[in-house]
Amino acid sequence: MLLGALLLGVGFVAYGSGPPTVAIADVDMVEDGTVVRLTGVLVHAWRYDSGLETMLLADLQDGSTVKLAHQSSDSPGYTSFLSIGDEVASVGEVRRIGESTTVWVSDDAIRLTKQSETVLTVGAICRNWLLFEGDHLNVSGLLAAGDLPGEMVLSDRDGPGSIAVFRPPSGLEPLMGKSVILECELVLSTEELRFGLVVRSFAPSQA
User: pTM, whole model, 2 decimals?
Assistant: First the structure.
């Protein structure tokens, strides 16, 4: 335990060495008290009045998730600068209570590696829609016409995935056929019985 605490305290100062890198799907098989490195996409984040932060990281390739926890004091905490869909790397200690596994991280033990608009693809959202339902996202893609009359969709630039844009805001239509970044929310339409994006703001993408 002492060695684990020392390694955790070092955090990213010696990120090139130290704790082993573990796939998110394999965290449940790691021994309690082990310090590990993880890389994943942030899909949920909460901050409580006590300063406790809990975050859910996901591997968007297989859909596996792991819970991170951090007790912040006077600092703003990780949730102040991380956004849903960001890719992050972390160092933390595996703690297990019964069948519940949590990776506890210290200050300076999480770093942003890629922002959401460079991480989230339409295909990844479609494959993992349960993880993103109701979330506010920054997603990049190609704005195109859908199969239905007047329908607008956001599609992957290099893939078949596409998702409807519900009630497109004024000014979005001139960007049809172009790459865009949408600040949006993934919602389920009970009328159409399908998921779509409700756009809050948008901008042309340079990609």
Answer: 0.83
